[in-house]
Fold each of these.
Amino acid sequence: MPASFISSIHALPDEVIGHVLTYTPRHDTAQILWDASQTDGLRLKYLRRYRVPNDAHKDEIFAHLAPSVCGATVYGDEDAPMCIIRTNISVGECVRFRVLIEKQQLKRNAP
């Protein structure tokens, strides 16, 4: 059985893999994300809770992805080549987020 394209690449010496991968085309979705990050367009508009019609998705989104739950308005590590920036955050979410940050600062400054 022939080896897959990816396993054939990984079988190459380490010095060669990087050169080969620069010529391998990206997946279409990955290319869209890369292009958006290069033009500072990788932004995620905050979606208000009442705008989500499906209750199962609503609970999932706001239980895990809300800025006040994540503790950040930016998704991605500081040293990552790209990050997703949240925009148009609601006033209520900003207040919840500010309270979260203030609690964290109080914990850090406590003796």
Note: The mean pLDDT is 81.
Amino acid sequence: MVYAREQFADLELLPRRETRRRGHVLRQGFLLLMTAFDAAVFDLVRIAFRKKFFQIIGTFGKQEGITGRNR
């Protein structure tokens, strides 16, 4: 019974501590979301390149040219 009461007391203090750390929790959540998004985009691009590499590679750099002098 004493152990359960101590655990309950710890749970009461947890929200007070988390208000200071809320920024850290939100930041960590954002970083995890961006990591998952990056992995998904990487996988999609990898699949696209494997299936249609030559069709896709032709679209890159069509409007850009390489010159020998700086502008």
Note: The radius of gyration is 26 Å.
